[in-house]
Amino acid sequence: MENQNKNDIRNYKRWFAMSNQEIFDKLKTNPETGLSSELAKKKLLDEGENKLAEAKREPGWLIFLKTLADPLAIIMLIAGFLSIILPIILIGRIEHEQIPGIIVIFGVVLINSIIATTQESKAQKSLTALKSLAEPKAVVLRDGVQSEISVEQIVRGDMVFLDTGKFIPADIRIVESPKLRVDESALTGESLPVDKHADKLADSEMMLGDQKNMGFMSTYITDGRAVGVVVATGEYSAMGKIAKSISETKTKRTPLQKKLTQLAIWISTIALVMGIGIFLLSYLTGGEKNNVELIAAIIFSISAGIALIPESIMIIVTISLSVSAKKMASRNVIVKTFNAIETLGTVNVICSDKTGTLTQNKMTIEKLFLDKNIVELKNFKYDPKEQEQWHFVNGLVLCSDAISIGNARLGDPTEIALTDWGHTLNINELELRDTYKRIDEIPFDSERKLMTTVNQVDDKQVAYVKGALDNLLKICKKIYLNGKVVPLTETIKTEISQNVEPLLQDALRVLGLAYKIIETGQEFAQDNYEKDLIFLGGVAMMDPPRKEAKFAVARANDSGIRVIMITGDHKITAMAIAKKIGIASPKYNEALTGLEIDALNDEEFKEKLKTVNVFARVNPEHKTRIVETLQSQNKIVAMTGDGVNDAPSLTKADIGIAMGITGTDVAKESAKAILTDDNFATIISGVREGRNVYEKIKRAIAFLLGANFSQMLVILFILSFWAIVGHTGKIIALGDINVLWHIVSVETILAIPYGLAHSKEQVMMYEPRSPHESVFKWIFVEIISITFFNTIFAIIAFCIAYYGYKDKIESPDQLMAITSSAAYIVIIFAPIFYVWIVQIRNNTVKIAKEKSEKATLNEWMLGAMIIAFLLNIITIFIPGLNDFFNVPNTLEETIVTILLISVGLSVLPFVFIFIETLIFKAIYQKIHKDDLKIAKFNFAKKQKIDKIKRFKRKMNIKIEKMKEE
Ligand code: ATP
After folding, report:
1. Among all residues, which ones are annotated catalytic?
2. Strand spans (E) along 354-475
3. Where are the transmembrane segments (predicted)?
C-alpha cells in the first residue's frame, strides 16, 4: 500500500534533521515566494485535502430506529401490539372495526418517527455546516503574496505564517521562530507548552516531543510566532496517523429535551390511570359483558390513553432548536451545540471584553503625551534630527507589526493607529523596518501589557518597549524631559499619572514608548530588554464605542441581564467608556483593577461584585475568578474571550463566546458559541433566540396538554353521562378512530408549526429563567384554562344535542352517536382557533408590556390552521367518509343543524381564552405601570433604529443599482 511505503516522501520522518534549503529543494518550494498557485493546485489533486478522515454521519435508518426507542414511541408500540394480541388471545380474531384504529396507532408512530428522523438528520447536518463556518483558516505564501486560505487547501511545500493562539494546520518544519512555544498536549500528552526553534537537529531516531524544530498538526501556539514549511498533511501528519477520524458531530440531548422526556413519561402514567378509568366506565357500565365487548373497551381505552401523550413534543423541540441555530448563524452567532442555544436563553450575567466587542476596535491617535504634558496633534512639530524625538516616532512604528497595503490594513488595530500616524509624518513602515532590521523581539501579551523589539539602528542595537503607560513607567529609570534625559523620580511619575488623567477621562487609551541602547558588552538577552529604560512619551488613541452597544446594554438590562466589562485597558478609560454605554450606573458605579482583585479574599470579592461592573487592567486569570465568583452566587454567566489565555475562563463560563474575527483558534475551540462579527449586540440577539426556543416549546406544551386533557375529560363525561341516565345498551363515547385522528389533527398538523414560529421581541422583557425552572411555570394556568374552556364547550355541545334533539331522534343509539359527534366536533375544531391565541399569549402575559408588538401569525401556523380546518370539514360533512369517523350521515337536516351548531360552538373556547388574556393583560399593566414605561421606551427606540437601518439598506441597494446602470 502506498501509505506503508517508507520511501514515499509523504511518510518521510526526518525533516528535523534537514537544513532549510534541503527541505525547500525537496518540496520544490521557495521561501521568498512560496508555491505557485498552479503547483499548489496540482499538489492538492495529487495529495488530497489536508484533513483527517471524517467520521461517518449516523445513517438515516439508525436515527429512525433510535426514534422508535424513544420512551413515548415504545409506549405507543406496546399499545399497538396489545391491540393486536389481546383480541387474538381472547376471541381468536381481530374485529373488522378495530383494524382502522390499529392502523392509525402504528401510522402515528410511523409518521412521528419519519418526521423525527428527517428533523434529526437535518439538525445534524446544520450543526456540521455551522461548525465548518467556524473552522480555522491559515495564512500561506503563494505566488509571493500572503493570503488566508482554508486549512484543507494546504499542501506540502506551502510556507505558513503562524502566531499566538493559532492551531498549527499541518506538520511543519519551523524555518523562523522568535520565542515560539507550542502546546502539544493533544499529541504528546505533555501538559506544559514546549519551546521550539528553527535549528537543524541531529539525524537520529527522535520522539515527536523531542523534535523541537517541528510543529505538528492540531497543536497550537501559546507564545510567539513562526514561519514554517509544510512537510506533511492530512492523514500523513503525525496526528493523522494516530487519530483516524475527527470527532463526530452528535446532537446530544439538551437538558430541556431530557426534562421533556421525563415530563412525557409522567403524562403517560396519568394516561395509563385515565385509560383504566375509561376502560372501567365503558366496559362495566355498558351492555353485554362478553369478550368482544371487553376487547372493544380495551382498544378504545388504549387509544384514549395514547391520545393524552404529547408525542410530537420532541419533534417540536428538535425543529425549534435547529431553526434557531440557523437563525443565529444568520445573525452572526455560531453555536456549536444545541445546548448552547438553551444556555444563552438562561444567561443572567454577560462578561464582555471591551476592545472590539463593546468598542469598534478602530483606533486613531488623537493626542500626544510629551514632557509630562498633553500635546495636541496639530501642535506637534516632528524634527527627525532631534535624536530622542526620532526614536519616539520611529520606535512606535518599528515596535509594531501592522502593515498597510494600499488602503488595506493588516494587524492589531492599536498598531494600525501607530503606522497610520507614521504615514502622516511620511514614515513608511515597510521601508523603515527594512532599514532598521529587527534582531529580536518579545511579543505583546496581555499579562505584561508590553511589547519589545530590538532593532539595528545604524551601528547600535536599540530596544524599544511600548505598552500600557503604568506598566511601562515601572520599568523606566530615566525620562526624556524638555530636551534632556533626566532620572525618572517618583515625583515625576506621580505628575505623569495626574497629568495624563484628562486623556483617560476622555476614554482615550494611552500607550507609552521607552527605549534603551544596548551597549556593547551589555548582556544581549531578553531578560535585559525590559528594564532601566528611558521613557520618551505616549500617544492617546480613541476607540469609539460601537453605535449599537449602548442600546444592546439597555436591552440586556431590561431583560434582567447584567453586563460586566472586563478589559486590559486603564481603569479610568474603561470607566469612561462604561459610562458612555450604560454599563456603569448609579447601582454599579465602581471599577476594580486586577491588582485590587488580588488584594481581596473571596468573601470581600463577592461583596465588591455587588457594586462593580467594570474590571480593568485584568489578566486572563482574573476572568476565571470573576466567573467562578458569579457562579457561586448562582448566576448563569456568558463570558467573551479572544486570546489563548482566555481558554480557561471560556471553558469555565456557562457559555463561553469567542470572537470570530479577532479570536484565536484556541479561544474558538474552547468556546461554545462564536460571534462572527465580534459585536456585543450580537450576543443579545443570541439570548433572544435562546429565550424564544424555550418560549415556543412552552407554548406547544400548553396547547398540547390542554387539548389532550380536555379530550380525555370529555370522554369520561360522556361515558358517565350515559351510565347515569341509565342507558342499557352499548355505550360509545368517541370511536378510537376519532381519538387517534385527534393526534394527527392536533399534534402533527397544528402543534409542529410552533417550532417554526417567528421569534418575538417580547421575550426580552422578562427576567431570565432559571435553568432548573419547571417547564410548567407560567403555563399551568394556561393548561387549566384551555382544558376548562374546551371541555365545557364540548359538554355544552353534547347537552344541546341531547336536550334539544332527544325527542326528535328516535333511536337511542343514534342519539348517542349524534351527541358524541357534537362533542367531538368541539374537541377537534376548537384547537384550530385557539392554537393562534396560545401562540401569542406570552409568558406570564407580559405581552402586555409590548402594546406595539403585534401578534402576527406565522405562515406555517396559518397553513396548518387552514389544512386542519379543511380536513376536519371533509371528515365530518362528506357522506361516506364521515361513516369512517363515526359521524352520522349528514344529509338529514336535524343532524346537519346539530353539527353546524357544534362547529359554531368550537369558536367559543378561543373567545373565552382571548378575553381571559385581555383581563390578565390589564391586571399586569396595572401592577407594572412603571416598568412598562421604560420597556416601551426602549422598544420604541429599537423600532426606530430598525426603521432607519431598513431605510439605509434600501437606499444602499438603490445606490448600488444606480452605480451599475
Ligand atoms: P480588552 O478590552 O478586550 O481586554 P484591551 O486591548 O483593552 O482589550 P489588552 O489587549 O490586554 O486589552 O491590552 C491591555 C493594554 O495593553 C492596553 O490598554 C494597551 O495599553 C496595551 N496594549 C495593547 N495592545 C498593545 C500592543 N500591540 N503593544 C503594546 N501594548 C499594547
Report:
1. 353
2. 364-370, 373-376, 403-405, 408-410, 438-445, 450-457, 460-468
3. 72-92, 98-117, 263-283, 295-321, 701-725, 737-757, 778-803, 815-837, 857-878, 898-920
